[in-house]
Design brief:
Layout: E1 2-6, E2 11-17, H1 30-49, E3 53-64, E4 71-82, E5 86-94, E6 100-112
Antiparallel strand pairs: 1-2, 2-4, 3-6, 4-5, 5-6
Family: Belongs to the thioesterase PaaI family.
GO cellular component, one term: cytosol
Pfam families: 4HBT
Length: about 120
């Protein structure tokens, strides 16, 4: 994965599709989309949460919309909700032609760092 934009308000990552990303029918395996979706959302959520602690994914729901067998996939994540205890991020994955190939959302828990001495 290449990290193109890393920000607490928007994250963009890309992946060049190779044979190792394909399932038996010659199209990108769904797990590749899930990994792109969760990675993009987790980076943005972590950067927004910052030094307050860490974030961990609690749910990843990804829909596969268009088959891809080669080229580059680009995932863009933006926040839907950012609260004290959790965040929800929406992610769109497009192909080289800008066509939507997958869409997902990731819910993340915000974990605080205990104060020193606790």
């Amino acid at each position: 994965m290449r990290y193109l934009v890393q920000d607490g308000d928007r994250t963009v990552i890309s992946c060049e599709v190779g044979p190792e990303h394909l399932q038996g029918h010659g199209i990108v395996h769904g797990g590749v989309y899930c990994a792109l979706v969760e990675t993009a959302a987790s980076i943005g959520a972590s950067l927004w949460w910052g030094d307050r602690g860490r974030v961990v994914g609690t749910a990843n729901q990804t829909d596969f919309l268009r088959p891809v067998g080669s080229g580059r996939l680009t995932a863009t994540a933006v926040p839907v909700h950012r609260g004290r205890s959790q965040q929800l991020w929406s992610v769109e994955v497009v192909d080289d032609d800008g066509r939507l190939t997958a869409r997902g959302q990731v819910r993340l828990a915000n974990l605080t760092v205990p104060a020193p001495g606790r």
